[in-house]
TrEMBL record:
Residues 1-19 form the signal peptide. Keywords: Signal. It comes from the Bacteria. InterPro entries: DUF1573 (IPR011467), Ig-like_fold (IPR013783). It comes from Aquiflexum balticum DSM 16537. It holds the Pfam family DUF1573. Coiled coil: none annotated. This is DUF1573 domain-containing protein.
């Protein structure tokens, strides 16, 4: 009888721990970075990062922060329902930039991991060199 109670308690505890892990919104990006390779100084490149809310409550992106004014994000302001996808569009303007660039974008949300990062990578070449 004691073994049966112990087994039930362990099972219940395991289930409760698993349920707690999945509680709330969870943001999962299809990809975390995109490498544009060589681009010419002054070029604007853009990429749309697709993400999914794999949690069990609505996901709300509260803010998106960039490392410099050369990067402009656009994100959904409405909640993302569980099981649905959203898009984060990011534009990088290489004007005034030179060499290897790694534009990091921080995504602040109500997800279980409240800060996620995605990045745009490029190598900016002088005009006429590409």
């Amino acid at each position: 009888m004691k073994k049966m109670i112990l087994l039930m308690a362990v099972t219940l505890f395991t289930f409760a721990a698993y349920a707690q892990e999945k509680a709330g919104p969870v943001i999962e990006f299809q990809e975390k970075s995109i490498d544009f390779g060589d681009i010419t100084q002054g070029d604007k490149v853009e990429h749309t990062f697709v993400f999914k809310n794999t949690g069990d409550t609505p996901l709300l992106i509260q803010n998106v922060a960039v490392t410099c004014g050369c990067t402009a994000p656009n994100w959904p302001k409405e909640p993302i329902a569980p099981g649905t996808t959203g898009e984060l569009k990011v534009v990088f303007n290489s004007a005034g930039k030179m060499g290897k660039q790694n534009s990091v974008v921080r995504v602040y949300s109500n997800a279980s991991e409240p800060i996620e990062k995605v990045s745009l990578i490029s190598n900016v070449l002088p005009k006429g060199q590409k």
